[in-house]
Design brief:
about 70 residues; single chain; mainly alpha
Length: about 70
């Protein structure tokens, strides 16, 4: 199950707070929504990262010269 449902819930709560004059609550809910989005993005990035062991050398990108040759 995706974690993005919590962003929808926080957005709905924020909209309710705004419509009912709870401006401070709406601001705090917006902060919570942004924090949730950040944590979800970090969690997704961690899943995609491939751990590198130190036994294998670090792969470095090839450098190209303006003339099209390799450095």
């Amino acid at each position: 199950m995706s974690d993005k449902w919590i962003v929808d819930v926080l957005s709905d709560l924020m909209a309710y707070a705004e419509q009912n004059g709870l401006s401070v609550t709406a601001e705090w809910l917006d902060d919570a929504r942004l924090i949730a989005l950040t944590e979800i993005a970090d969690k997704s990035r961690e899943k995609r990262e491939i751990p590198r062991t130190y036994e294998e050398p670090a792969r470095r990108p090839a450098l190209y010269l303006a003339s099209g040759g390799h450095a």
